[in-house]
Design a protein that fits this description.
alpha+beta, 3 helices, 3 strands, flat
Length: about 90
């Protein structure tokens, strides 16, 4: 999450990072841009717009906690899958 997606883009380009998908406004009303790391893992860089900021501020604490734990859960599954994939002989 960044405050200014175009400023972030400029910093990434100066650092030699290739932009896979240039900044654009997605269906969720957030600015989005995609990059990848040397292993090919893709990362989305986002900037909230005024519209989405209002929606996020209206999320109550219970919904946020649920969303947070689900996100962490799937991230841990992803890390485990990546570890198993790297050590497996089937590729």
């Amino acid at each position: 999450m960044v405050d200014d997606i175009y400023e972030a883009r400029e910093e990434l380009v100066k650092a030699g990072i290739e932009i896979d998908i240039e900044p654009n406004k997605g269906q969720s009303e957030t600015w989005q841009m995609w990059i990848h790391d040397p292993d090919g893992n893709k990362f989305e860089i986002m900037q909230y717009t005024a519209c989405i900021t209002v929606l996020v501020k209206n999320i109550n604490k219970n919904n946020f906690k649920t969303f947070f734990f689900i996100t962490i859960f799937f991230y841990l599954i992803f890390l485990k899958y990546k570890e198993v994939y790297k050590t497996s002989k089937i590729k």
